[in-house]
Structures are given as structure tokens and as C-alpha cells.
Amino acid sequence: MDPLKFNIDMAFAYGAASPMGPGVVRIVANNPGPFTFKGTNTYLVGSTSLAVIDPGPDDAVHREAILSAAGSRPITHILSTHAHRDHVDGIAKLKAATGALVAAYPRDPAAGHIALQDSPSGKLFVDYDFQPDLALYGGGTIEGEDWALTAIHTPGHAPDHLCLALAGRPLLFSGDHVMAWNTTVIAPPEGRMADYVASLEILLDRRDDVFLPGHGGRIHEPQRTVKAYLLHRNWREKSILEALGKETTSIRQIVPEVYRGLAPHMIPAAMLSVQAHVEYLIEKGQVAADLPLTPDRALSRV
After folding, report:
1. Which residues, 6+ apart, have CB-to-CB distance to 126 below 8 Å?
2. 45, 53 contact by CB (below 8 A)
3. What is the pTM of this model?
4. Cα–Cα distance for residue pair 58/89, rounded to 1 Å
5. Most buried among 25, 50, 181, 286, using CB within 10 Å?
């Protein structure tokens, strides 16, 4: 399979509100890293009253940029695509400054703390204490004076992940579910590959002109991108199965087989991605292993 062709072109300036279409602007937070690319994208939606999607990190400069872009227009709602800290740490102070209601998919408060690999910003992990004012599930809609956003539950990258469809427009805020600059990290136990693949398939039935992701530039021809990512995941599964057909017997041994020339600092994330694929292959009855999985636990093809 040919390598995926990522789009890393992105015209922006930190703190500047860039128009993404009628009634939608983007502000990029200054929290770049290997998992956040140039930074977290914050979107302001509306012309009269505003919704803010993913306020990003707890950063005073970024928060002031959001408030400056809003101007005299009230921010009535804050929405989160998922409770990873690079998306939600800025919510509390923005809510305090605006009085806005926070809407998101509520997480299970009994879930334990699961840390992903730290990014240079030190913020890429899960906020298990985050609770919205308004519980937003798949099919639910949040409305303002001149906008409405309908949630599509797309677990996989995170169990609470939502994409948000803008009413009356072929436009989807895709969060970290689909991005142009790289594939999405699926890191167990926070991430689950079976859910991610099913969530990608949900988007195949849509007819959007553009996706606006949580990191990186806008995605044109989004359904073609979704199909390419599904093919990529299928190819990755086949590569893992081929590796297991040799003398490779563990996740740690599979990683250099399927990720050639990977930078050392990305190896932990690659191991988590391979683990997610192996878990999915076990669910499908194609791989056998004693559970729980560890990097060195023996695997075998069925």
C-alpha cells in the first residue's frame, strides 16, 4: 500500500482569528508538539451569539485571543470534542469570564486516570475530573441565536469523542477523530481500535464538503480521506499479521517491523497503536494472547 499523503500545509498566526467560512473562525493555540501539530484549533461559531469549540490549553494569551475575536458578541456555549487536556484545560477560566454553559459527552467518573505520552507542552492526557453543564450525546443538538451544532458520537481516540455537525452547512468539526496532518493516536486503554474503525465508517455516509479538525488544516474531500484512513488501518492489520507469521512474537518486536525508521521519541506511541490493533485482532479471532496485553507478552496468529 502507498503511504498516506498527509497535508501539513496550514496558514495561520498564533492569536489571529482566521475565517473558515461564514460564521466560523479558527484560532490556533500556541501548544505545538508531536501529538498536537501546530497547536489545538479553537473554533468560534456564530455571528450574533457564539459557541466556542475546544478552548484548548489553560493559556491566558489564547483565552484573550478568543475573547478579543468575540468582541461584543456573547459566548453562550462552550463545547468540547473530548476531555483530553489540550482541548479542555482552557474551559474553566473561559467559562468564568463569559458565564457560558459547557456541553460535552460526559465521561464515566469511575474511570481511572490514563496518561498518554507527554507532549512537549506536558498537557496531552485525560482530565477525568471534567464534567459539562450539559450532557451532549450522539444525536443531541445545542443551539444559539443563529447556529446549531449536532453531536455525532465517535469513540475510538477517546470514549467521549464527539464530532459536531453545523446545521445548514456541509461542514463537520471532526476533533481528533479525522485530521489531515497525521493519523489519529489510538492509545489503549483510553483508545479502542474497534470503536475507532466503526466511528470512521459512520462518517462515510455523510456528504460534507469540509472537515475542520482539532489540529492541523481543514480537510477537503473528507469522505475520500476517511476511506483512505480505513484502508490504512486495514493495511496496518495485515502488516501486523504478516509480522506474526515470521519469528516476531510480541508488540515490542512488531513495532520496528511495521514502523520503519521511526524516531525514538515516537516509539512509545507506536507501541500503543500496535497494541490497539492487536486488541482488535484478538476481538476478531485472528490473534491469540494471554490477557492483559503487555509489550512483551507472546502473541500468535489463529
Report:
1. 83, 84, 85, 113, 114, 115, 116, 158, 190
2. yes
3. 0.93
4. 5
5. 50
Would the CA dihedral through 69, 152, 226, 299 be positive or negative?
positive
Cα 124 to Cα 119: distance, rounded to the nearest angstrom: 6
Q: How far apart are CA 272 and CA 254, in angstroms?
A: 11
Residue length, the chain? Answer: 302
Rg of the Cα atoms in the chain: 19
Residues in a beta bridge with 172: 165, 211
Q: Please, which residues have CB within 8 angstroms of residue 143's CB and are 6 or more apart in sequence?
A: 149
- pLDDT tens per residue across all 302 residues of the chain: 455 778 888 999 999 999 999 999 999 999 999 889 999 999 999 999 999 999 999 999 999 999 999 999 999 999 999 999 999 999 999 999 999 999 999 987 666 555 444 433 334 488 878 999 999 999 999 999 999 999 999 999 999 999 999 999 999 999 999 999 988 989 888 899 999 999 999 999 899 999 999 999 999 999 999 999 999 999 999 999 999 988 778 999 999 999 888 888 888 889 999 999 999 999 999 999 998 899 999 999 99
Q: What distance in Å separates the CA atoms of residue 288 and residue 267, rounded to the nearest whole number?
A: 23
Closest among 41, 39, 34 to 270, alpha carbons compared: 34
- With a CB cutoff of 8 Å and minimum separation 6, the contacts of 265 are 34
| Whether 57 contacts 41, CB under 8 Å | no
C-alpha cell at 26: 479558527
**Taking a C-beta distance cutoff of 8 angstroms, is the pair 142, 134 a contact?**
yes
What is the rounded distance in angstroms from the CA atom of residue 286 to the CA atom of residue 234?
A: 13
Would strands 101-104 and 75-79 be described as parallel, antiparallel, or unpaired?
parallel
Tracing cell 457560558 back to the chain, one arrives at 100
- Three-state DSSP class for residue 57: coil
- Residue 18, beta-bridge partner list: 26
